[in-house]
C-alpha cells in the first residue's frame, strides 16, 4: 500500500483482500485491508429501520461497514459482511467449540493476527450449520471481543478450506447450500445510506430468497462472472465485466477505460463487487475524469485514506455505470464523503473551501497480480440491489452452471438530487450555479492538421535549400580547381 495502517482493531480491519500466513502470496494475491473500517467498530452501529420483508437486517456503521448478528457455539457475535473474502473470523473465545489442531492468520501493512481454526454450531439467517469452521482470534485492546467478519466470497478464496481440505472447512454459504439442496444457491444484499433523508433503512441480506419489494431484480440481465486463471484460483472474486467505456462522467461523456487484466478475453474492464470495502478503488485516470474538472477540486493525500480527490462539499457529482447496456446511477451523497465520518474535523482546499472526500479513490495499494481493474465497494453497492448466484462455485455440486450477478438500480435521479440539496445545501438548491472547468486544450502540433502540413512543408523546403547549397559549393570548388 502507499500508506501504513494504524495498528488498531485488527479484527475490524479484516475482510477484503487478506493474505494467509500459510500460502504463497503469489498464488493468493493479497487483498488490501480497508483503512476506514477500524474507525467505526461494531459497537457504534446505527440500527435504522429496514424494509419489512424477508432476510436478515443489517446494522449500518455510518456507511463504513454493514454488520449482521450471528450465534456461534451458543454465543452471539456481530460480524461484518464481506463479499471480498470467504472465511468466518471471530474475536474472543467461542464456547462449545472444537479445535481442529490447525492455525491460520492474516497479515497487514502493520502487524497481523493469527489464531486456531475451530468448529462450532453456527446460526445465521435462519440457517443452522453444525461444525462450521472459523478462525478464533484472541480479543485484546486491538480486536474487540464479540466482533468478526463473515466472508461471502467463493470457496477458492478460503484459507480455512485449504487448511482442512474437507467440506467441514468450507465457507458459510457453501455449507448452507450443501446441506440445503432445495435452497437456491444465491444470496442478495441491500445496503442502506446513513444520511439518506428519504429512505430510512440500514440494509438486509437474504440467502436463497428475494426481498419482496425488489422482485424485479429477477428480470434484470444475468451478468456472467469472470474467471481468473486456474493457477490463480485463490484470487477468484465475485467479479463481472463493465460495459466498454462503461462509466458516464459528470459532463455526460463516456470515460475511456483500458483493462489491465492480461488474461482478459475482452477489452472491457473487470470489476469486483465488494460490500466490505468502504471506498471503491479505480484507476487514477478514472478518478481524474470523475472529479478533476470541478472548480476547487484537488488531488491530495489524507491521513488514514491515502491519495484521493477532494471537492467542495456543496458540489454535486453525478456518475452512471453501465452493465449489459443498463444504466446504474450513483447517488451524489455516495460520490463524496464528509470528513467527520472518518474522524477528521474538516478538510479545506487551497482556496479555503470546505471540502469532501471523493469516494472513488485511485488504487491505494500496489498489485503484483492484476485480475481486476476496479473494486466497486459500498459507495457503489448502496445504489443497487444485488443478487449473487454461486453457480458451480459451490463445493460438492456436480452440476455445471455459470455463476452470475444481477443488479437492480434503486437510485432515482430526481430524488437523489433532492437528497443532496437537503443534506449538503441545507435545502437551498445552488447546484445550477456550478459548472465544469473546460478541459485543457493541447497545444501539440499533432492536434492541428494544418500545423502538421506546415511543418512538413518547412522541413522539405529546408532540405531543398541544403541540397542547393551543397551543389553550389561543390560547383565553386570544381571551378577553383580548374583555375
From TrEMBL:
<dbReference type="InterPro" id="IPR033121">
    <property type="entry name" value="PEPTIDASE_A1"/>
</dbReference>
<dbReference type="GO" id="GO:0004190">
    <property type="term" value="F:aspartic-type endopeptidase activity"/>
</dbReference>
<keyword id="KW-0064">Aspartyl protease</keyword>
<feature type="domain" description="Peptidase A1">
    <location>
        <begin position="66"/>
        <end position="398"/>
    </location>
</feature>
<dbReference type="InterPro" id="IPR001461">
    <property type="entry name" value="Aspartic_peptidase_A1"/>
</dbReference>
<keyword id="KW-1133">Transmembrane helix</keyword>
<dbReference type="GO" id="GO:0006508">
    <property type="term" value="P:proteolysis"/>
</dbReference>
<dbReference type="Pfam" id="PF00026">
    <property type="entry name" value="Asp"/>
</dbReference>
<keyword id="KW-0732">Signal</keyword>
<comment type="similarity">
    <text>Belongs to the peptidase A1 family.</text>
</comment>
<keyword id="KW-0645">Protease</keyword>
<keyword id="KW-0378">Hydrolase</keyword>
<dbReference type="InterPro" id="IPR021109">
    <property type="entry name" value="Peptidase_aspartic_dom_sf"/>
</dbReference>
<protein>
    <submittedName>
        <fullName>Aspartic peptidase domain-containing protein</fullName>
    </submittedName>
</protein>
<dbReference type="InterPro" id="IPR034164">
    <property type="entry name" value="Pepsin-like_dom"/>
</dbReference>
<feature type="signal peptide">
    <location>
        <begin position="1"/>
        <end position="20"/>
    </location>
</feature>
<dbReference type="InterPro" id="IPR001969">
    <property type="entry name" value="Aspartic_peptidase_AS"/>
</dbReference>
<keyword id="KW-0812">Transmembrane</keyword>
<feature type="transmembrane region" description="Helical">
    <location>
        <begin position="452"/>
        <end position="473"/>
    </location>
</feature>
<keyword id="KW-0472">Membrane</keyword>
